[in-house]
Automatic annotation (TrEMBL):
Cellular component GO terms held in the UniProt record: SCF ubiquitin ligase complex
Domain F-box, chain residue ranges per copy: 277-323
Protein's name according to its UniProt entry: F-box domain-containing protein
Biased composition (Low complexity): 8-40, 247-258
UniProt xrefs under Pfam families: F-box-like, LRR_At5g56370
Organism domain of life: Eukaryota
Length: 1106
């Protein structure tokens, strides 16, 4: 049995048409547009048409997509939704509910689409324009709906909501893989896959009533994949669709017969039979109700388009307690929605034309209305009279930006016996009267009325802010009728005077909150407010120092705001319960004295004339003062103060040290900030609690003496005049004094100190560093540091591992001998010093791994001879001899004989000549065999020349090996070489580089020969080389590279003569990925293709011509 759509014009009873129209008009607010359609639709049973002959030929993605549209068309309750593409709307809605994943794009045969569309038109009894509507671009209404769906899709859902939806889906349709499935699409292998099939829903899932959430999830996972469908109630013409249920059934051959028998039995009884007890249905409904209760109205309307069950569930009155109507809403739509949900309790109109008529009609249907909000429009006095009689339960009324009254009379009287909150803001009215016996809160803010009459005995809060036309007498009379008033806002009421304020305080003895900001005539003279707790007097020109007497009488005062009181010069308060005070932009304030034990918050900013500040509080934990340029004296008696920040207090003197000490008024101070305090020159104090100290920008600070055992953070940025620093003892782990170039005396005692940076302290001549855990000391550019300071530091800091003494010209052999005390030293930097001999280093630093000797121009050639023995510094791995004056013999001795080094740098060495490492031809095979045996690896493994063929070139260099090598050379030239990185940047006398793999550089991976302007020939055969840099080698003429592991090659700015030279050089670089030939003038754009052909694995080609 299937369903077909029936037009309103076809033969049917008037009852059926009326029922269809009633169903159409009972949609929610966001779906109310559907009620205005010209066609009414109903579902009636029809016979099944025969399968088309071409049905089997329509398999594939296109048929699956159109079959989904067919199934939805059969279940649709509105024909225009079929024509407008219900399939896309449903998928978007189900994506919003996190039910299905977006399907990937598929290639569709349009001929198949045309045939299926024609078949659908036959099934639905449509005209030939169905294909055009179904495949054409979406209509404007579709675009609006899909945009709303996309907006809902971009809203992030909480995790608990996704879990609820997941549980709901598993209860409705479990998947064998645990994933989500399509709710309406037929299951795999189901008999409904065809144009003539019906939809079956005769399945039952296990009962889970009374079980926990985890039990429900577990029970849903064990279900077998069922087939889904709907059973229809044919007792009436509405053909209501029941909610689906599941059951675990075996996939036997009689499944279809059993389903058909049950369907016939259920239809004969005119009931919905889903194979399970009715009690199990409540699980799905309860889950739906729980999930939908967290959705807004827009999301509910989107969920209603998924299926009929969700549509019915979304219309539950619990979800529509609050109705919100915007612009372009019609009176019929408002009436329809209000009749559908008569128990709604909240109603709002925003920017609606004819709001009074719409509100009247809505109120007529909503007898339980409690809250009404109207934004923009016009309301007459009769509307308020209607509210008094038609809305007995109304307790909240908000009217904003509305014209009250009529054209002839702008007088409004609001009477309601149950109203509790009334807001009439930014409205236009002449006179307003309020008579509400239960009213507790009234706001008339920004309403330009001239007169107000109040009769509200229970009023607690009254807001007259920005009512600039309201007279002084009008405010007085209004407040006098509210003797229980506790909060009054009369800000920006320019006519208010001290006399009015005195009368209000007398008539309202329980007044606790007063806001009189922007009232220029108030000075508080003679005003008594004994129970006042909160007071705001911002921008009150009449508030002066004499007004503080009236504030002192407010014994219960808890919060005071006196911002921008420009005539206030002195504030002296002694209030027991005062907790907060704000004094911002008080330009004439000179003195502030607060004796308030409960004070917890002080805001004092831009009080440029403030000179004296005295605060006493037992509750204050944080104090921040910014831009107090005149503050010179600060007195604090705050035993619980933890954070103190004084920023740009230019006049602050050295007396602040007394306040900060343990004997001062802040014994628990934890964090101190003294930034840009230019008058501060000396800071000396002792604190056992201070952990963080910042002195950034204190340019005139000269001396610091601190004894803070728990200090962990110390910032001295911008203290350029600092000369004496004593930190004994401190809890710091690291200290940076490199930004203080004028420090001369330094004393540090830190048991936890690990790193000290003294870079740039050129005047430092006395350094007493006692840090037993210190591991890193950087004293580079300390030109005044001598051997005595070095001996003291090494004796007190035996754990140093890294010592940087670059540009320390006074450090000599005597100081280097003291390095014996540093048994863990592994990094030593003596660059730019006047060393001539390295014997003290060789004797003292046996565990050294990194040695830097840059620009040591006085270093002798013989100083490096000891390095050719691996017993001198057995753990040395990195050596830097750049920019020195060493001869070619000394440098090649290091490169050729120090085989244990992994990183060598000889950048800028003008005396370095050619690097040629090759094997010359031997006189006989016997000599070749003897030579190979002499160079067997020390570990006893196979030699590297075992595969060399007769006639192989022999080892040749300026330190050439003779044809018959003595056995005494075995230790010096113990190949293979461990060198990994070699930097020879900017060596002007290097003309030829020839490195063959026979020399056994098995670990060499990086070679940098850039800026060697006279380099002409490069020939490299190395199996391990991965990075070669020949940039700016302008004289390069011959290039031969046979490096199968080379990944990156840079020829930028090199004078490569022809592109053929590059192609030939790259033949042996099969792994090259990056080639840089920028600024190579001899390589043109048309040559790049040949370059790429020579390197098939090339990924990046950098060229100026590309």
């Amino acid at each position: 049995m299937r369903l077909r759509m029936k037009d309103a014009g076809s033969p049917s009873s008037s009852t059926e048409a009326a029922a269809a129209a009633g169903a159409s008009s009972s949609t929610p607010a966001s779906l109310a547009s559907a009620s205005s359609l010209n066609e009414s639709v109903e579902l009636v049973p029809i016979s099944e048409p025969p399968s088309p002959p071409h049905a089997e030929a329509m398999a594939g993605p296109a048929m699956e997509m159109l079959r989904e549209g067919r199934v939805e068309g059969h279940l649709s309750y509105n024909r225009p939704l079929q024509i407008r593409g219900l399939r896309d709307i449903r998928v978007a809605s189900m994506q919003h509910m996190n039910m299905v994943q977006p399907q990937p794009d598929v290639q569709i045969d349009h001929n198949v689409i045309n045939r299926m569309a024609m078949q659908l038109a036959v099934d639905f009894h449509m005209e030939g324009d169905f294909l055009e509507h179904f495949l054409d671009a979406p209509s404007s209404s579709q675009v609006v709906g899909l945009n709303a769906t996309h907006e809902a899709l971009t809203t992030e859902m909480p995790s608990w909501f996704e879990s609820s939806v997941e549980l709901l889906l598993r209860s409705v349709e479990p998947s064998p893989s645990g994933g989500r499935t399509n709710l309406l699409a037929p299951a795999e292998g189901h008999v409904s896959s065809g144009p003539g099939s019906h939809i079956s829903l005769i399945h039952k899932r296990p009962k889970v009533l009374g079980s926990s959430m985890n039990d429900q999830i577990a029970s849903s996972k064990v279900c077998h994949p069922p087939s889904l469908g709907f059973a229809y109630n044919t007792a009436n013409q509405s053909s209501a669709i029941a909610s689906p249920q599941l059951s675990v059934q075996d996939n036997s051959t009689d499944q279809q017969d059993n389903s058909s028998d049950r369907m016939r039995q259920d239809n004969s009884n005119s009931e919905v039979a889903l194979g399970g007890e009715s009690s199990s249905m409540y699980v799905i409904e309860d889950l739906l109700h729980t999930v939908f209760s967290f959705l807004d109205q827009r999301s509910l309307c989107q969920a209603a388009r998924v299926c009929r069950q969700w549509y019915a569930a979304s219309k539950h009155e619990d979800f529509w307690k609050s109705l919100h109507f915007g612009n372009q809403i019609t009176q019929d739509q408002v009436a329809s929605v209000c009749r559908r949900f008569p128990r709604a309790m909240e109603l709002s109109f925003k920017c609606v034309q004819g709001v009074e008529d719409l509100a009247r009609q809505a109120v007529h249907s909503l007898r339980h209305l409690e809250k009404l909000v109207i934004n923009k429009g016009s309301l007459s006095e009769s509307f308020f009279n209607m509210l008094a009689s038609g809305c007995p339960h109304l307790h909240f009324l908000s009217i904003h930006d509305v014209i009250l009254g009529t054209l002839t009379s702008q007088d409004v009287l609001i009477c309601h016996r149950n109203l509790v909150v009334l807001e009439v803001t930014n409205c236009r009215v002449m006179r307003i009267g309020v008579r509400c016996t239960k009213l507790e809160q009234l706001s008339l803010s920004h309403t330009n009325m001239a007169s107000v009459t109040l009769n509200c005995q229970k009023l607690l809060s009254l807001d007259f802010s920005s009512c600039m036309k309201l007279s002084d007498t009008g405010v007085r009379l209004s407040a006098s009728h509210c003797r229980g008033l506790m909060a009054l806002n009369i800000s920006q009421c320019s006519y208010i005077s001290d006399e009015t304020l005195r009368d209000i305080c007398m008539e309202c003895p329980q007044l606790q909150v007063l806001d009189a900001s922007l009232c220029p005539n108030i000075s508080l003279q003679g005003v008594r407010m004994p129970v006042l707790k909160k007071l705001k007097l911002n921008h009150c020109e009449g508030i002066t120092s004499s007004s503080m007497g009236a504030l002192s009488q407010c014994a219960m005062l808890e919060a005071i705001t006196l911002d921008a009181c420009v005539l206030l010069t002195s504030v002296i308060l002694n209030l027991k319960w005062l907790e907060r005070i704000s004094l911002a932009d008080c330009y004439k304030l000179v003195e502030l004295t607060l004796q308030c034990p409960a004070l917890v918050d002080i805001k004092v900013t831009d009080c440029t004339a403030l000179m004296r500040l005295d605060i006493s509080s037992e509750s204050l934990k944080s104090l921040s003062l910014e831009k107090q340029s005149s503050l010179a004296t600060l007195t604090l008696d705050c035993p619980n103060l933890l954070v103190l920040s004084l920023v740009e207090c230019d006049s602050l003197t050295n007396s602040i040290s007394e306040v900060l000490s343990d004997q001062g008024g802040c014994p628990k101070l934890n964090s101190l900030t003294l930034e840009s305090c230019e008058s501060l020159t000396t800071l000396c104090f002792t604190s056992t609690t201070l952990q963080k100290l910042s002195l950034t920008g204190c340019q005139n600070l000269v001396r610091i003496e601190l004894a803070c055992v728990n200090l962990q953070c110390f910032v001295l940025d911008g203290c350029c005049q600092l000369t004496h620093v004593t930190l004994a003892p401190v809890g710091l782990q690291s200290l940076n004094l490199g930004i203080c170039p004028h420090v001369t005396d330094l004393k540090i005692e830190g048991s936890a100190m690990v790193s000290v940076d003294l870079r740039g302290c050129g005047d430092l001549s006395k350094a007493n560093i006692i840090c037993p855990q210190l591991s890193s000391l950087d004293a580079s550019y300390c030109s005044s540091l001598d051997d005595k300071c070095l001996e003291t530091a090494t004796a007190a800091c035996p754990s140093i591992q890294s010592l940087i003494l670059a540009c320390c010209p006074l450090v000599g052999p005597d100081g280097l001998v003291s390095l014996k005390k540093l048994s863990n030293l592994i990094i030593l930097d003596l660059s730019y010093t006047f060393l001539t001999d390295l014997d003290p280093i060789f004797e003292s630093c046996k565990r050294l791994k990194v040695l830097r000797l840059l620009a040591c121009k006085y270093l002798k050639d013989s100083a490096l001879d000891a390095l050719q023995s691996d017993e001198t510094l057995p753990e040395l791995k990195e050596l830097d001899l750049s920019y020195g004056e060493l001869s070619h013999r000394a440098l090649e001795g290091v490169l050729g004989n120090c085989t244990y080094l992994t990183h060598v740098e000889v950048n800028g060495c003008a005396n370095l000549g050619d690097l040629v490492w090759e094997i010359e031809s031997l006189e006989s095979t016997h000599n070749m065999h003897d030579w190979q045996c002499e160079f067997q690896p020390l570990d006893g493994s196979a030699g590297i020349f075992n595969d060399a063929s007769p006639g192989c070139s022999s080892f040749h260099s300026s330190f050439a090996v003779p044809a018959r090598v003595s056995k005494t050379w075995k230790r010096k030239a113990a190949f293979p070489h461990l060198l990994q990185q070699l930097n020879c940047v900017g060596c002007p006398n290097m003309r030829r580089v020839k490195i063959l793999d026979a020399v056994a550089f098995q670990h060499l991976s990086y070679l940098n020969l850039s800026l060697s302007c006279n380099l002409k020939e490069v020939s490299i055969h190395c199996l391990s080389l991965s990075n070669l840099n020949l940039s700016q080698c302008t004289a390069l003429e011959c290039l031969q590279i046979n490096c199968p592991r080379l990944i990156s090659l840079s020829l930028q700015g090199s004078n490569v003569t022809t592109v053929e030279l590059v192609e030939g050089a790259l033949q042996g670089c099969t792994s090259l990925e990056t080639l840089d030939i920028r600024n190579c003038s001899k390589i043109f754009a048309e040559d790049l293709k040949d370059v790429r052909a020579a390197c098939p694995r090339l990924r990046r080609l950098l060229s100026s011509t590309s």
